Amino acid sequence: MPSQLEELLSKFKYIRTLNQDEVNKSLSLYGFISLNGEDTVSKENRAILHINKQNLTASDILSYNNFKNTKDNDCYHWGEGSLKTKDNASDYKFNLIYPATDKHLSKYEYQNKNFQVIETPEIYKNVVKPYIDYNINEGSIQWVYNIIQGKTEQEFVRFNEPDFLVLPDMKWTDETDIKNMYLLLLFKDSKFKSIRDFNSEDHLLMLKNVRKYVEFEILKKYGNTSIEKVKLYFHYQPSYYQLHLHIVHADNEINYKSMLLGKDCHFLDTVINNMEIAIDYYQRCNMVYYLTDSSELYRRIKKAD
């Protein structure tokens, strides 16, 4: 009996290529799932197929073979497989997003129009915070809640504490390869959406304790790696609005490339230092980052100007 993923992929109708990244060896395809014989795309059936670890074309991917479903969580479906058209190609990993939202499209489509945003506390309060609340109410991070609540992906959880859990990022495919370490520490309390929510001595103590836990518990599991060889950072804006800390080996090539591409990183030690200077630092400071002109958040900020 075919899996859900197998059925979805068999009905994937390709429309166009969103992005082909030869440096990072990835490909993102846009299309729709025709479960009921539909011949046009809609918000209810549109899908994104993202493939890692291969320099491939759309026609290559659409001739997939021998794939297996590795996990599912809400609108996300992961798998791996090989190709009919490339006998010498190694296995590839892919992620099917269905149904795909506007935010998904903005994330995966190639963009060359990035603009600086200087987010004041007023802009955060009047524009960004309502945008965050809207996204959460729309169910955009249900997949995160599923992990926290123990409903999905529990086989990938490496540490599970009362305040947070730790699991490998999908980009870290071989956990014996320490120099490519990429872990995510996911905070469980839903009140923490981003670093903007830090505002008390309790929060500062929490961050200091997390740093100690990384150094004396997590890194011991992975070859006694020195904390000086690991980057601990938050993104702002984050890719999803449940607070999470990136734990990445300093020599990780994928991480280095993503930072070159303009990811806005806030290192844990810097966040701690800022809060030691002023406990409400992240309520008072301006936050500078870059958004594409097609993103919903950018449009809201410009409209409020």
TrEMBL record:
A cellular component annotation (GO) from this entry: P-body
SUPFAM superfamilies: HIT-like (SSF54197), mRNA decapping enzyme DcpS N-terminal domain (SSF102860)
Sample GO molecular function, one term: hydrolase activity
Pfam family, one: DcpS
GO biological process entries: deadenylation-dependent decapping of nuclear-transcribed mRNA
Gene3D superfamilies: HIT-like (3.30.428.10), Scavenger mRNA decapping enzyme, N-terminal domain (3.30.200.40)
Entry's family note: Belongs to the HIT family.
Name of the featured protein: M7GpppX diphosphatase
Species name: Hanseniaspora uvarum
Lineage: Eukaryota, Fungi, Dikarya, Ascomycota, Saccharomycotina
